[in-house]
Structures
1.
Amino acid sequence: MPTSTAPGKVYLFGEHAVVYGEPAIPCAVERRATVSVEERADDRVVVEAADLTLDGFTVTFDGSTADADPELDVPTRLVQSATGYVEEAVAQARAAAEAPEAGFELTIESEIPLGAGLGSSAAVAVAAIDAATRALGVTLSREEIAEYAYQTERAVQDGGASRADTFCSAMGGAVRVEGSETQRLDTPPLPFVVGFDGGAGDTGKLVAGVSALQERHGFAADTVQAIGDVVRSGERLLADASPEAEPSPDLLKGLGELMDFDHGLLSALGVSARSLDAMVWAARDAGAHGAKLTGAGGGGCIVALDPTGETARALRYAPDCVDAFRAELATEGVVRT
Ligand code: PMV
């Protein structure tokens, strides 16, 4: 049975602005989604999802109707959103393998909380497309998987998606995405710490909010461009650093200052939340070089830079944080097991 895993990610810089053509630097982290696929004799798609969030759920769906388990302890909205991504990933895999009627049994396990800014949907889409096409006898390149996974997100998010999450999950490592230009970056191993508030944000809604704000106010469009400037400054710092050596204190200080700035700009665009701001401040107070929300915002995760254990320790005691952990850079993207 083909099984594939793909990593989640944190944004060092550039979420939201990347949707409007500014560059972004997401970094894959060692929290993975694993998808196993078996072809079925009929054209049905059955999804078994254990641990898709901290609590897990099971769903079976057929065509466009998704019936969630009534025992769920995960908000229905999140389940519907997750099944939407799986359903579209299956459509992409069928198209890629030119097998429009193929039926599948998919088993999904994930260490990445849903809708929390760590790229759970991209990781599930990447792993599902790779495993499902292999079940149909087609082996795609990482670039092709990234493209089909991007089309998945674009369809589910009504066009409001960038290539950042899906390219990063398929390729691994730190990547740079600007419009349709995508490349891997050689960066030193950055000491990411993640804080999770136990909640989630609605990516589609948050992206639509930033779009509406830019239509109303020119300064909101300037804020999006300013995020692009932050990313370009960060890129220059990374370009001067040796990818082999541990990051220097100066590099961490410089990147941290830019992360703080990026968080301020994202807050101005209305995508932060009280819990995310509280975790950002807990991280800064603990001595992190910088901290910001990661992903769409509205709730979910923050990312901080700290080579010591202090930030993770402080976050664990912060009232708004339910989980804090060190997130190692995942140098491998999609992996076949
Ligand atoms: O919260 P996530 O992991 O879905 O990240 C969303 C990132 C956005 O820039 C807001 C949207 C996108 O597709 O790039």
Note: Confidence is low (pLDDT under 50) at residues 53-73.
2.
Amino acid sequence: MKKSISALLALSLTAASMTVLIPASAADAALLHSGFESGVDGWTARGSATIAQSTSSASSGSGCLSVTNRSENWAGAGISLDTTTFKPGETYSFSAMVSQSASPMAEHFKLSLQYSTGSAGGNEGGMFPGMGGGGGQQVYDCIAESDAASGMWTKLSNTSYKIPADAQNLLLYVETEGSKVDFLLDEVMIMTEGSSSVDTPPPPTGLLDGDLNTDKKIDKKDVEAMVTFLTTGSGDFSKNVADLNRDGNVDGIDLSLLKGLVLRPETIVTTEATVVTQEQPPVVTTTTEPEQQSGEHMNGKDYMAKVAATMTQNVPANVKTGDRGKTEHFTYMSKKAGHNKGANVWLPPGYDSSKKYNVLYMNHGVMGNEDSMLSGFSVREMASNMISSGEAEPFIIIFPQMYTDPTTEQPGFGFNMDVMDHYDDFVFDLTDSLMPYVEEHWSVYTGREHTAVAGFSMGGRESLYLGLMHPELFGYVCASSPAPGIVPASDSFIPNHLGSYNLDRTARLKPADLKFPDGKLPYLLMIAGGTSDNVVGTFPKEYHQIFDQNGVPNIWTEVPGGGHDGGVGTPLFYNFFRNMFKA
Ligand code: FER
């Protein structure tokens, strides 16, 4: 049985719920208003989902609709719209409030309209897209969409959406993109064109969930306050905003949710990391001088010297927005775990199975899953734009769920060696099961010249570990804010990190083991950390220093004022993507 820090440090709290009042005029004017105060208001489950009226933490009033058991991203909740009230060819204002706390990262939500065109019949307008029988064609149109950060009510709104003139059998529904998180739905309104309903709840006078230090920002200082509380048991903060998942405890899950909020800089007014990095250039160092290149590919030492000279902290804004690739969830049988595991694959715009692609494995932070790196670091957006513009060599991305443990299918929770060893067991799952599955299902090159591994925090640590254990498989290795523990270390989470195991599990790694066999130096080994990272502290820099001491060339970027977030990770991945598969 694993012990978790929540069990050790759980504290009973009374959670305060956030209430937003809807102007009576807006509610009165609505042609449809679902507040879920006393029932499901005519909504039905769509696909596999289960819906129920819930009083857990409504956006407005005391009721909302909970949507669970979603085995497809389109499974959710829907309501039929009658065409006498909602006339095809006319324009209306739509809005809905959504919230999710199941994923620490932001999830992408859509308010959509399913309708049929042409002659009606069969299952059009029904609950199962693609299962209509005969008659007209089914269309699924997005009315409004938005990312919903964990634990925050988010508004999906379009004040001017025209119901297509030939639309019949209208079904309004809420779905997610690329994930199947449970969610809550509230305050769905359809009004006359141009009307605006509920505002996104910014409690201007109250406290934000996660704003532990009450400075009206959710940032690394709040993470720091929660870490201190979890490790020492004391904390000078308003505890009713710390229990983000409303389970009555402030524990590691709330820390993870809070980190998810902080990882989305756009949900925050300003972050210190952003301000400081814009003003001060990052410090980039490399241990190497250029040498003569040899063979078909440059050697790592020469290649890294070349890349180091072009490092930048600036990521053009247009490179960070607009994902035009395709993300698909899949499951594969993990031999090491003894059960199926989930992962996401991202295919670039115009993916063509008659061509071959390089592969990047992108690893998540502690307690994360295969969806965690889909947002917060602009990974898919940068890959889309950089591949399309030719700035990056074409590649596909696999987003794994690292935790590999025969006793549970849940991602690892708790800070102890048992849990950490199961994260490291991904090295077997990856090579025995996931890589063969990827090679069988997508058109990819194999070999170190074509295979990269990158990650954030626990995933950064894992990327270094994978690179060290399998230099014959990974030629490109990148770690953003890597967590401690590959070699013995001590921090407030785990006072005695013993080090990761070697591959035959006979010994744990020591600093002297952080090196590569002759001829197997990575072409690119990049590490970055922020000077204000209060989750992994100076451990990223220590990895860089150990590599330096061992004579292993590496490109180290220190972001002044950078925290434990995408302010460090996004520019690092940008530089990595520009230089992957090009040695
Ligand atoms: C630790 C501190 C932080 C640790 C892991 C982390 C393995 C990971 C943090 C994250 O992934 O965000 O001591 O031990």
Note: The mean pLDDT is 84.
